[in-house]
Specification:
The protein is an alpha+beta fold. It is built from 17 helices and 39 strands. Strands 6, 7, 8, 9, 11, 12, 14, 15, 19 and 20 form a 10-stranded antiparallel sheet that branches. A 9-stranded parallel sheet has the order 29-28-27-26-23-22-21-31-30. The longest helix has 23 residues. It starts with a strand and ends with a strand. Bound molecules: alpha-D-galactopyranose (GLA). The site of alpha-D-galactopyranose has 11 residues, from loops.
């Protein structure tokens, strides 16, 4: 098995064709992180473990072991699971307060086991696979004073340069303990020669790529909103200085969690770098009674020496095959038209039926009715929580019949975790809403959040959704989440367990997703959060599509989709052509085809010319579907590089087909333009339909495509399809 234990050196080596990960068990049972990177057939332990204390000299000559152990300096060693309070002054991975009030935590190695496959994390999203897809290592550690156990879990992927990590804490003591801090993973690096990449943004400007050289001190990205947030995504990478799309070391982490997180980078006095990933300790404290346990969420750790482009391609494949699950995993998704920007909440049955008629002529396969169909909702001031049809406003049976007549599917919007003070649900259960005792509740968009940390609240929402799904043939759910948590409080948790609230909230949300996935496996869920405010690897486990942003201007979308593609598959990026006037429908289509592709407009207002463009677009969508949803993405020229050119391409895995897209964000800009393509077979000839020309793959990659065409001035974008010529 690809996890080997060298008893003499006391080294655990996790490896596959591409990577090695080495952990050393010290004579006094500490865990030292030796290495993570390219596969190593052999290694010199002394070089790897050496630090200023000369601790490891005993491994060279075998003498003075005790004296040297006393000299051990945990503050300058690379630690595998750094604990609080025993001399490592960098941010720690774990801090537990015991019943004496003592926060010193000191976990030591007890044993380890290795087995084939990967177990499911109870109640949490995680990667999954067949027995041969992963090998698991579980290291058992114990804090001898409290008798608390920590199980460090590492799942090594067989075919990806990837290891997942998580930690389970089991209280084997007789007394309560409080977990004050628990990161799912720590990665120590020997130097500060790294750049810190992350995805940051705000509402309608999500996931812009930012990076800088790490410096002494702490830098972090995090969320406190109860969701992963628009502000930052639970993803980060440390790269070698100057890494590009094609070159350089990239150590990246992708946290499989949708709640409050923190990714922290610290460079210490010796200019060593530490990376921590986990639940944000600022809103987390978890009490374990005797024999209770706590499971941390999972973090996916990846290493590649082929740059940021390869990092993304690895995540895309990995998540498409081992995170996204269920019927829709690799199944072709219906081309949809969403009603939101087309009519907002202002609709009736006739209007929606007209939408359906027009949409079906364009070739749309599913119509999604967005916000406004339930309770008494005509504005955003009321009714969240009342998930029954407003029959005075819309006849859903009629709408669905109309769709079925045309062989089309139906999708419906919900915002399951929310409640409006003006709602039947609130009248009946005011205690379901999150609110502090004796404090005013902050409203956002006239709404409050349901206390998903409570089982009865989750049950109520599941039952309401279930009733709708049983009564109406609903093929798709848009699951929205439009505000952040404030006044976090849950009376049922009480003083002792209040610190668990935020985590229990997201577990509750996950449980409703899971129950829906199980009971209605054919229902496709597209998650949403005021656009893309909860776009993370956790949510992808339940919903294979995520609405990327409320910003539907395609030029603004360039940076949003580019950043999203950094860490998440393009096949998950909800991207619609809207009526936004800045660009032509051709350009809107080219950019939306980087993601799921769909429409979000009033189809009854389209001109004959627009409709002609769209019909062609729909044909292209089908023709290119496999490429855009399963192909390898190459970001050729990034929007983040600000040169008024953006280009990307998808290449099929057999390299027989490619789809190239080029956009000039500021219209009217023209210059000589040569773009080198990537990922093609150098020896294959490719015929380009639109240019009616055949090129050698190597020519396209070495000389490039000559795009010095006048017509770019008017078109703003081009999409070129290449197919192998036999
Ligand atoms: C959020 C979503 C939009 C739309 C509205 C409806 O803002 O991001 O796509 O569904 O809610 O209220």
């Amino acid at each position: 098995m690809p996890i080997k234990f060298n008893k003499e050196k006391r080294v655990i080596h996790l490896y596959n064709k591409e990577i090695s990960y080495l952990i050393h068990i010290t004579p006094d049972n500490g865990l030292i992180h030796l290495y993570f990177g390219s596969y190593l057939k052999d290694y010199d332990l002394y070089s790897m473990a050496y630090n200023t204390s000369n601790y490891y000299s005993h491994l060279v000559n075998g003498v003075e072991e005790k004296a040297l152990i006393e000299n051990f300096n945990s503050d300058t060693s690379s630690m595998e699971f750094p604990c609080f309070g025993t001399g490592d002054y960098r941010p720690c991975a774990i801090k537990i307060k015991n019943h004496f009030g003592d926060e010193t935590t000191d976990f030591r190695y007890v044993s380890h086991k290795v087995f084939k496959g990967k177990e499911k994390l109870e109640g949490l999203p995680c990667l999954y696979g067949e027995k041969d897809d992963f090998t698991t290592l579980q290291i058992k550690m114990i804090d001898s004073v409290t008798n608390v156990e920590a199980i460090l879990e590492y799942c090594l992927a067989t075919n990806y340069p990837v290891i997942t990590r998580s930690v389970k804490i089991i209280n084997k003591s007789k007394n309560d303990i409080t977990i004050k801090k628990l990161y799912s993973a720590c990665l120590d690096f020997k130097t500060d020669e790294y750049e810190f990449y992350r995805l940051t943004g705000r509402y309608a400007k999500e996931r812009n790529i930012k990076h800088n050289k790490v410096m002494q001190g702490v830098q972090s990205i995090s969320s406190l909103e109860g969701k992963s947030s628009h502000n930052a995504s639970p993803f980060a990478a440390l790269t070698s200085i100057g890494a590009t799309e094609d070159y350089g070391d990239v150590y990246s982490v992708n946290f499989v969690y949708s709640g409050n997180f923190e990714i922290k980078v610290e460079v210490n006095q010796c200019l060593q770098t530490r990376l921590l990933v986990g639940i944000n300790p600022e809103t987390f404290e978890y009490v374990l009674e005797e024999n209770q346990s706590f499971q941390s969420p999972e973090v996916v750790i990846q290493y590649t020496n082929k740059g940021l482009g390869e990092m993304s391609r690895i995540y895309h494949k990995l998540f498409n095959n081992h995170l996204i699950k269920g019927v829709w995993k690799n199944k072709k998704r219906p081309l949809l038209l969403n009603s939101w920007e087309g009519c907002y909440m202002n609709f009736d049955t006739e209007k929606i039926i007209n939408f359906i008629k027009e949409a079906s002529e364009l070739g749309v396969e599913m119509v999604v009715l967005d916000d406004g169909w339930f309770g008494k909702r005509d504005t955003d001031e009321s009714s969240l929580g009342d998930w029954f049809v407003n029959k005075d406003k819309i006849d859903l049976h009629k709408v669905i019949n109309e769709l079925h007549k045309r062989n089309m599917k139906f999708g419906l919007w919900f915002e399951p975790e929310m409640i409006c003070p003006k709602s039947k649900l609130y009248e009946e259960h005011p205690d379901y809403a999150i609110a502090s005792k004796n404090r005013n509740a902050t409203l956002m968009r006239h709404q409050m959040i349901l206390n998903m940390a409570r089982q009865d609240v989750c049950d109520n929402i599941f039952d309401q959704l279930s009733k709708m799904l049983d009564e109406y043939q609903i093929d798709y759910i848009k699951w929205d989440h439009n505000r952040a948590i404030t006044e976090a409080y849950c009376e049922k948790l009480g003083y002792k367990h209040m610190g668990e609230f935020y985590h229990r909230f997201i577990l509750g949300t996950y449980s409703v997703f899971e129950r829906l996935n199980e009971k209605y496996p054919h229902v496709l869920i597209e998650s949403c959060c005021a656009g893309g405010g909860r776009y993370d690897a956790g949510i992808l486990y339940y919903s294979p599509q995520v609405w990327t942003s409320d910003e539907t201007d395609p030029i603004e979308r360039l940076s949003i989709q580019e950043g999203t593609s950094f860490a998440y598959p393009c096949s998950s990026m909800g991207a619609h052509v809207s009526a936004n006037p800045r660009t032509s429908y051709e350009t809107k289509g080219h950019i939306a085809m980087q993601g799921t592709f769909g429409y979000e407009l009033n189809p009854t207002l389209l001109t004959i010319k627009d409709k002609e463009v769209m019909k062609k677009q729909v044909e292209e969508y089908h023709k290119y579907y496999d490429l855009t949803h399963h192909g390898d993405l190459y970001r050729l020229i990034k929007n983040a590089d600000n040169c008024n050119k953006v280009a990307w391409m998808f290449v099929s895995s057999d390299k027989k087909e490619a789809l190239f897209t080029y956009v000039v964000p500021l219209r009217g800009y023209s210059e000589l333009c040569y773009i080198k393509l990537k990922g093609l077979d150098p020896d294959k000839y490719y015929y380009c339909e639109q240019l009616n020309k055949t090129y050698l793959g190597k020519f396209l990659m070495e000389f490039g495509l000559n795009l010095t065409f006048k017509w770019i001035l008017t078109n703003q974008s081009i999409q070129l399809y290449f197919k192998e010529k036999n």
